[in-house]
């Protein structure tokens, strides 16, 4: 014989049906469900807290060493001086890196510096890593490098189980930063010095050739009237500026894309200078003594170009002789006296609170179900 459902009996007797609706749960229901188990919840929470503290005692301590350096100020190099020497083109360099400190943070976070630190302290064996990439990843997780937005100071923190090694690694990052910046500055200066030395040699030969052509055409007053000296010199300066901007553009294209603001600015400047050159060439098309005018123009152009390259060559030689970037350490890393983690009290508190909340939720759910079902 099949018994009717509870809802059917209630409906038949005229009583309202019991609906298992959890939206009608009241705080008193939850409190009444948890109250009988209060001692059990407190005991379990205390036991969980002690267990968490015991596990924290078994964890190896971690020490954090901290170093602070002043954002390095790099000396002006010839790449910057190139625009300064061109007068009207001084403002065409565009905006560089807004925060130099960010550049040095990226250098210390690079794989080059990381691999040198790994080799220096044999971290593959220390971290028990199978591959160098694994050791590099662990090192990155144990290292935090940040630049201050207002003061420009760079803070460096390194975690390690050995306090002495933690401080040595933090100071090693500073030493590697100094090595990388000096090496990059020296290499860049050498490249520019060799480049301008080659350009200077070629321009010197072209200048001698242009001087010979002027001497062959002869020097007459009529030629000077048809092409005044001032106009010829303006033509030479404009053409020299075009050559200098082309050099600047070729250097930028080695490290930047065509969409970079610096490349676009130099391209726009080059287009404007070529337009000026076209205007300066128009009057000479109908002038007399074109042989002398053309030779004289070429001579003045090579002369101006020789002066530009000579200045850049000397500046590159000065940059090559400099020591590079000066890095000042504000707070060198020292072996920390206290561990930074694990936070044993926080672990114990978290275990106790977690266990208490879990048990309270369990008893509340079970008790409310019983209350609603009755």
- Counting DSSP H or I runs of 4 or more residues, the number of helices is 14
Structural class: alpha+beta
Average pLDDT, all residues: 75
Helix proportion range: 55-70%
Number of strands: 4
For the largest beta sheet, what order do the strands appear in spatially?
A: 2-3-1-4
| Beta-strand fraction estimate | 5-15%
Shape: elongated
Domain Polysaccharide chain length determinant N-terminal: 23-119
Pfam family, one: Wzz
Membrane topology: Multi-pass membrane protein
Keywords: Cell membrane, Coiled coil, Membrane, Transmembrane, Transmembrane helix
Explained architecture:
The chain has 374 residues and is of the alpha+beta class. It has two domains: 24-59 and 354-367, no CATH class; 63-331, no CATH class. It is 66% helix and 6% strand. The chain has helices at 6-12, 27-34, 38-58, 78-84, 100-108, 111-121, 123-126, 132-141, 163-217, 221-226, 229-253, 261-281, 290-321, 344-373; strands at residues 63-70, 143-147, 153-160, 329-331. Strands 2-3-1-4 form a four-stranded antiparallel beta sheet. The longest helix has 55 residues, at 163-217. The radius of gyration is 39 Å and the shape is elongated. The two termini are 25 Å apart. Mean pLDDT is 75; it is low at 1-20, 78-98, 219-226 and 284-288.
């Amino acid at each position: 014989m099949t018994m009717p459902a509870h809802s059917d009996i209630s409906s038949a007797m005229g009583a309202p049906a019991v609906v298992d609706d959890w939206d009608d749960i009241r705080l008193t229901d939850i409190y009444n469900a948890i109250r009988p188990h209060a001692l059990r919840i407190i005991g379990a929470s205390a036991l969980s807290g002690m267990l968490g503290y015991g596990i924290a005692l078994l964890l190896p301590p971690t020490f954090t060493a901290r170093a602070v350096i002043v954002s390095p100020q790099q000396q002006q190099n010839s790449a910057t001086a190139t625009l300064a020497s061109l007068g009207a083109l001084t403002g065409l360099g565009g905006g560089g890196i807004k925060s130099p400190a960010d550049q040095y943070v990226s250098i210390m976070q690079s794989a080059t510096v990381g691999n040198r630190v790994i080799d220096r302290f044999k971290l593959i064996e220390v971290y028990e890593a199978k591959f160098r990439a694994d050791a590099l990843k662990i090192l990155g997780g144990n290292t935090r490098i940040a630049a201050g937005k207002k003061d420009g100071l760079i803070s460096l923190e390194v975690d390690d189980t050995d306090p002495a090694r933690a401080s040595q690694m933090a100071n090693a990052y500073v030493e590697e930063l100094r090595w990388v910046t000096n090496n990059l500055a020296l290499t860049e200066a050498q490249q520019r010095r060799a480049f301008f030395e080659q350009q200077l040699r070629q321009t010197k030969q072209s200048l001698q050739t242009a001087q010979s052509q002027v001497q062959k055409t002869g020097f007459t007053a009529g030629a000077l009237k048809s092409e005044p000296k001032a106009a010829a010199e303006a033509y030479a300066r404009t053409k020299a500026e075009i050559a200098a901007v082309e050099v600047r553009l070729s250097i930028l294209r080695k490290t930047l894309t065509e969409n970079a603001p610096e490349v676009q600015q130099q391209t726009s400047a080059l287009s404007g200078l070529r337009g000026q050159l076209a205007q300066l060439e128009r009057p000479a098309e109908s002038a007399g003594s074109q042989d002398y005018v053309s030779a004289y123009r070429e001579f003045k152009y090579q002369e101006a170009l020789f002066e530009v390259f000579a200045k850049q060559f000397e500046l590159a030689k000065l940059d090559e002789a400099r020591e590079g970037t000066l890095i000042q350490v504000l707070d060198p890393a020292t072996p920390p006296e206290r561990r930074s983690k694990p936070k044993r009290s926080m672990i114990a508190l978290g275990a106790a609170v977690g266990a208490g909340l879990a048990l309270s939720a369990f008893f509340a759910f079970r008790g409310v179900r019983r209350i609603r079902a009755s």
